Every structure is written in structure tokens, then in C-alpha cells.
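During the reporting period, we have paired protein sequences with C-alpha cells. One record among many follows, to show the layout:
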Amino acid sequence: MHYSLSFAQSPKVRSSPADKNPKVRHVLVHRISWSMAGGIELEKDCLRENSLSLPWAHMRLPPLPQVALRVLQLANNENVPLHQLSDLISADPAFASEVLTIVNSLVYAPRFPINSILQAIAVMGANHLQGLCLTVGVRGYLGRSLSHPSMRTIWRHNLACATIAEQLASAGFLDRDTAFTSGVMHDIGRLALAVTQPTEYANLLGSHIGPPETMLERERAVFGKDHCEIGRQLIREWKLPEDFEPIVADHHHSNQRSHTWDMTELVSLSCRIADATGYVAYPACQSAPLAELLAELPERERKLFHSDIETLAFEISKRSARSSRCNPLSRICAFP
């Protein structure tokens, strides 16, 4: 039995004369062959005279919620008045209400009810609240696509990476709130693919077998760019702090960096530890053993970080609960 996936150009995008010329038209067909043993063998038949693929520019990408985007744009500005941040978040009542719901949850268990964003900033700190706002914003960005199991798997991986990054930063000398925010952001390109091409990307996630870095070539073949390249593009288009660029673009390319222990290296390792603890981005992801990953930590972080996989997985679930409260309107949970 064979299945074929084909991608049509968006009707809203005018085709150029080059698109109509069969000599420069690129045809990409994926055949999924099911063997008698039940394995999946993916063959790519590329008929091309020029190297063209499904153009990323033709995918209509919904923006992040405006509040979350503005909060991110202010992330590196330490001189932002608290009332300005409070007014920004409070300007969207639904968004502010969801943030306050999480802040007042049993996970945070404030001594007194927190009734305003300004009060939440005073209790939690501006940086911590920024990370929380980003989490609410990205979950809203995914919207109804979270109803698909593969999309929930991606979201769980993102939250696990963010939680691990926060813990690693706490064990060392990097800022824990920035680490959490960076962990949520690291796969923003993957989330964009999931939003713009949910069916095609779900099929790709369901059929691929191998370590995470091998997914990049498959993404480039189908979509023209991989999720790391798309993430870098989004950071620039959304005018977010430049510090996010290496985090979203290089977290699968550790061999290309100098291995300086910085936020990019921390998030990259957090992503791989999330895979090793079972919070993978796709079902057949092949991860390195946890012990091998822990050996890459600096000495201080290695001593203070959780060393067994069961304890770490439990801690991820518990600590991620604050970021995965159910949306009462959509009844979608990040961690079922």
C-alpha cells in the first residue's frame, strides 16, 4: 500500500511565469511503504531541474498573540517600568485572566489571592512573569492544533525542555527565568510548521525514525526550510531580542559550537535531556542515554542536578504543571 503527499500552492499567492514553466517546476513526492514486518520505509522521489521546494513564504503564518510578542520584545530591557509591563498585559483581559488563573493555582499557592497583573509582578518578579506570559501566548498560538496528539507531544517536549533549562540554570549561575523562556522558545520554528501545515507535519513526525538532528533534512525536503531556519527567521521578523537567535537556530548543532556553557548550550542540552526522559518531540525519536548527557554538564551543575531518570521525569511533570493548566474555554491541557 502506498500513500502520496502533495502540496499545492496557496491560491492567495500569484504564480510567477517561472512557476508555469515545467522546466523549473519542482515535484516532491513522498511514498510511505509499509513492509510485512510493520516497519515504515519512507522514500523520497525528487524530480527537479532546479532546486525548488514548497516555499516557506507561501505558508501563511499566524502571529503570536500581540501581548506575548510585546512582552518578548521587552525581555532584554531591564529598565522597563513595572507599570508599563502591567498595562501591556492587562490590555488583553482574556490573556491577563489566564495568566492570573495560573498564578493563583495550587502550584504557586500564593498566601493571598493575586488579583492584578501588577500585584503578580510584585510577588513573582517581572522576568518570571514574562516567561509565564510567553507560555500562555505560545499555547494560544497553537490553538486548536493542540487537539492533535502529535501537536500535544511537541508542546510537552517544549515545556519539558523549559523546565529542565530552568533547573540547570538554578544549579549554576545563569538566569533561571531567562532559561525557562528560552526553553519555551527553542522550538518555535517547529511550532510554526505545526500551525501552518498541521496534517503534513504530523505525517512527517509520525513516519520519521532517528535522532532529532536527522529530522532537519526531512523538513528541508518537504518544506524548503527546517524548523531551526524557520525559528531564526521568525525571531528576526518578530523583532525579538537577538539572544534568541542562536537558541532557536543552533540547538541541534552542538558540534558546531565551542561548547562554552552559555544559554544556547544549556537549552541544547535541556532539549536532549527532555528526549532522554521520555518527553520526545516525535514518537520514534532516538535519544542519547541520560548518563551520557549528564556527563556533558559542568561540574557544579552535574552535582546539583537530578541524576536518575525517574526522579527527573516526575520533577518535570510536577514543575511543568504551572505552565500547563487547562484552558477552561478550549478544555485542552498540555499535560493530559
